[in-house]
Structure formats: C-alpha cells, structure tokens
Amino acid sequence: MRSPGVHLREITDDNRDAVRALRVRRDQKQFVASVSKSLKEAAKTPEANPWYRAVYRGDEPVGFVMLSWKPPAGPYKGRHFLWRLLVDKRYQKRGIGREALTQIADLVRADGATELLTSYEPGDGEPWPFYQKFGFEPTGEIDDGEIVLRLTFPTP
C-alpha cells in the first residue's frame, strides 16, 4: 500500500522549524532521537557524511530521515547507513515510513549500493517488526548496544 504524495524534501530555513516540531509517541522516544538532536548530531559529525531530508505528504512535513552516506572512514566506511527515520505521531500507521524507506532504498540502490544498513535498540515497542516487514535482516553485529540490520538489494 503506497501512501500517496509522500516525498523527500531538503530542509531549508523555510521549513526547518516545522520539521523540528515533529514528534514521535512518548513510548518511542527511547528509540528515536528528535529532529533537533539529529540535526545537531549531523553538524557535530561531518565525518559521518550525514545526508538528511524532511519527509512530506503533500505540502505537510510529516517525518524526518537521516543517513550516513558512504562515510570516508569508521565502521560504515563506504556504506549507506540509515541513521534516523522518524514519522510524527499524528501520521503513523499510514504507510508513510514504509514509503519514505522505499524511496531511500531506491536512492541508495541508484548510488550503486548492494545494501542499506540500520540499527535499533532492542526493547518494548522497538522498531524491529517494521524493519523486518520491509525485508531487513540482522547482520549478527551489535554496534554500541544496537542490533545492526541489513537490507540486501537484488543484483540486476
């Protein structure tokens, strides 16, 4: 089920405040950092090569995504790592996260990648079921207490 009108948009001075105002549910806060924290983290770690976008549905910002896009060094050197995926609590369970992730996977695949990595912190309400449904599988690695997942792209 595709959620119509979902697209990624650059974060600019015009939409930054609206995007930073997006919030997850209280029970999800332990798993997902806020947009403000994510943007600060991106600014503090340029070596991670952060790439981020607002997720829009029509003209409304409904989410946020951030990747470490082929960083030149570190544990994910030369790979694509989904660092943040957040859908505002008012817009969850509508296929928006799945549609945003589909678009990200397409972008990463178009960049020549064979996989997309992410990780999550295990716990009650964890995002593992969402990622599992999408096709991610555990790599067997643990990074800073988080379980690392891989989405493998079929080779053409």
TrEMBL record:
PROSITE patterns: GNAT. Its EC number is 2.3.1.57. GO terms for molecular function: diamine N-acetyltransferase activity. Residues 6-154 form the N-acetyltransferase domain. It comes from the Bacteria. SUPFAM superfamilies: Acyl-CoA N-acyltransferases (Nat). Keywords: Acyltransferase, Transferase. This is Spermine/spermidine acetyltransferase. It comes from Streptomyces jeddahensis. The lineage of its organism: Bacteria, Bacillati, Actinomycetota, Actinomycetes, Kitasatosporales. The gene is bltD.
